[in-house]
């Protein structure tokens, strides 16, 4: 994510924490990595329309 967004890791971490707290995404640990998944159906519908 860091290289794709060209942002510091700390910034991305803060944004992900806010998205998790809002119930938009969920993180699942896989070894040393955490994979994030979109869990909010309303946000999923909005993104589907946009893209």
UniProtKB/TrEMBL annotation:
Boundaries of every HTH arsR-type domain copy: 1-51
Matching PROSITE patterns: HTH_ARSR_2
Organism, scientific name: Caloranaerobacter azorensis DSM 13643
Protein name, per record: Regulatory protein, arsR family
SUPFAM superfamilies according to UniProt: Winged helix' DNA-binding domain
Entries under Pfam families matching the protein: HTH_5
Gene Ontology MF term list: DNA-binding transcription factor activity
Taxonomic lineage from the root: Bacteria, Bacillati, Bacillota, Tissierellia, Tissierellales
Listed InterPro entries: ArsR-like_HTH, HTH_ArsR_DNA-bd_dom, WH-like_DNA-bd_sf, WH_DNA-bd_sf
